[in-house]
Amino acid sequence: MTTVQSPPAPPTGLRPRVVARTGLYAVLAANAAVVAWFFAQAGFASNALIVLGRLAGLYGALLMAFQLLLVARLPWLDRRIGMDRLTSWHRWTGFGVLWTLLAHVVFIAFGYADSSGMDPVSQVVDLAETVEGVLRAVVALAIILVVGAASARYARRRLAYETWHFIHLYTYVAVVLAFTHQVAAGTTFTASSAARTYWYTVWGLALGAVVVGRAVLPLWRNRRHQLRVSAVVPESDTVVSIHITGRDLDRLPARAGQFFLWRFLTKDRWWQANPFSLSAAPDGRSLRLTAKTAGDGTAALRRLKVGTRVFAEGPYGAFTALHRTRSESVLIAGGVGVTPIRALLEELHGHAVVVYRVATDRDAVLYDELRELARVKGAELHLVTGPVSPDKLAPAELARLVPDIADRDVFLCGPPPMMNAVLASLRALDVPGPQIHFERFSLAG
């Protein structure tokens, strides 16, 4: 068994997540300042409502460009922040876009109506008929309203992912329409060639990041590595491991704890992409994922044939040893969430305690491997079995298993209810937030 040792992170060093988050905030703040400067340079309208409306439109568009950056899947950001958090920030930024653009329309409508004597609705209709680009802006806002409604928590829980995703794709249409409206009708850009150049640069970089991160980089990596299934190994009645080989895998920047979006290029599966974590630390020769049956798609993994071509997007995720703050760690896994935990144990340096929570001994996937790896690494391994209630990972139980848990990094992966319960226990045990590492892989789709 090959293990990869990683040096302990210096406790006083800047945390990668903080560096990346600060960088994103700085980029947004700097561009907000530049937008305000160009806006002031163009001069102000006599009507205060029109001034507020134009500024709200500019900042709404800037937030829209920032949204694109958040979901571009750029490796530097993803490794430091994680796709789940970036996706969450994208969602909340989307509501910021919605409200700023609504404010833009309302202020502009009432501002111009105050000058013309029309009612606000008639004023919007008149602007759409007489001013270049305004009709495009109205259509863009309508699309954003539909996407915003579909992204609201109530609707999101009731829509199939495929339906929600299809609706969400229309955001790109809204982006194009809103951008062309601004450069055609925005006084900030019609008055200054420098402002237009700046705006084209901002949007070119944002859209370019999406193209590079979500298309160019995956296509290039898959062409380079030529991934194929090398073995299909049933681990239990409901769990299967897929072994994958390819070319130059030592140059694939994957780490233990990360995941890929996997497409197996068969007639009935090529269009499906599923997020599965690596269940073994990358060794430069092969990759392994381990999946539990959760529907027809994952059940079909057992029928994959050796030699099947694989298209993998990634690696993604910040659930790695890059974020360690202590030399010793606790790894807590629930069910098939043991897959990235098992890979992490292989890579982590320093003493580790592994807590594996399952309903019964039969549910302990990869337990023999985990036990042997713990023996080789000198780690403690606790298999915790039994029904959900009473909570066997409550604060008192965790403190009994790991008395010094507050002095260790904690890596956590499992079903959402279990993760929520363990996070509550960790807070009750006063484990500092920077020492708690987890990722909600359900958001990766």
Number of strands: 11
Measured by DSSP, the beta-strand proportion falls in 5-15%
Mass-distribution shape: elongated
Domain module tally: 3
State the low-pLDDT regions, or none: 1-12
User: So what's the CATH class of the largest domain?
Assistant: Mainly Alpha
State the end-to-end distance: 32 Å
The overall pLDDT, averaged over residues, is 90
Count, helices: 16
Largest sheet: 5 strands, parallel
Domain FAD-binding FR-type: 222-322
Organism: Streptomyces adustus
Keywords: 2Fe-2S, FAD, Flavoprotein, Iron, Iron-sulfur, Membrane, Metal-binding, Oxidoreductase, Transmembrane, Transmembrane helix
Pfam family, one: NAD_binding_1
List keywords for this structure.
445 residues, alpha/beta, Four Helix Bundle (Hemerythrin (Met), subunit A), Elongation Factor Tu (Ef-tu), domain 3, 3-stranded antiparallel β-sheet, 52% helix, elongated, flavin adenine dinucleotide binding, membrane, metal-binding, iron, Oxidoreductase
Briefly say what this structure is:
This protein is of the alpha/beta class.
Structural notes for this entry:
The chain has 445 residues and is of the alpha/beta class. The protein has 3 domains: 16-221, Four Helix Bundle (Hemerythrin (Met), subunit A), CATH 1.20.120; 226-316, Translation factors (Elongation Factor Tu (Ef-tu), domain 3); 321-444, Nucleotide-binding domain of ferredoxin-NADP reductase (FNR) module (Rossmann fold), CATH 3.40.50. Helix content is 52%, strand content 15%. The protein is built from 16 helices and 11 strands. Strands 9-8-7-10-11 form a 5-stranded parallel beta sheet, sandwiched between helices. The protein has a 3-stranded antiparallel beta sheet with strand order 1-2-5, with no helix packed on it. It has a 3-stranded antiparallel beta sheet with strand order 4-3-6. Strand 1 (228-234) and strand 2 (239-245) form a beta hairpin. Helix 4 packs across helix 5 (120-130). The two termini are 32 Å apart. 38% of the residues are buried. The model is unreliable at 1-12 (pLDDT under 50).
